[in-house]
Amino acid sequence: MAKKIYSIWGKWLTYVLRRLGMYMVRNVWKCARGKVPECLEVVKEVRASWASDGNTTGKIYLDYTDRMDTIAFEIEVESLDEYFNNQRTNYHELSPETEESVRQFNSNTVEGNRQIWEVVP
Questions:
Q1: Which of 72, 103, 110, 115 is deepest in the core (most CB within 10 A)?
Q2: 24 and 75 in contact (C-beta within 8 Å)?
Q3: What are the boundaries of each domain within the chain?
């Protein structure tokens, strides 16, 4: 009986810890008309950067039914603190080439938003 209770407790604890530690961050950008190709190249660089840091969950989406010229980028992270610290660190130490990419991206987008979702196993 004690073994069964321990097993149930272990599964519940694993579920709770996993549930509290996984988030999906989605950034959605509305690009200026016809500027998706330029913006897409920058988003691909961002995905590659996350992958080189060990997070290969990044996915890029282009709209089919929403407003035209929309790009979404999703990534799963275990810690929101780690995600935001990574963002601050990366933007603090940008190379001149990356700064130019960010400048171009910002001038080619009209608006954007970030959504943070809890991942439910």
A1: 72
A2: yes
A3: 22-118
pTM, rounded to two decimals: 0.75
* Distance of alpha carbon 75 from alpha carbon 118, whole angstroms: 12
**Tokens 């321990």 — which residue?**
6
d(CA 22, CA 19): 6
Find the helix packing angle between 36-52 and 96-108, rounded to 10°: 140
Eight-class DSSP state of 69: S
CATH 3.50.50.60, domain 22-118, yes or no: no
Beta bridge partners of 111: 30
- CA 86 vs. chain centroid, Å, equals 11
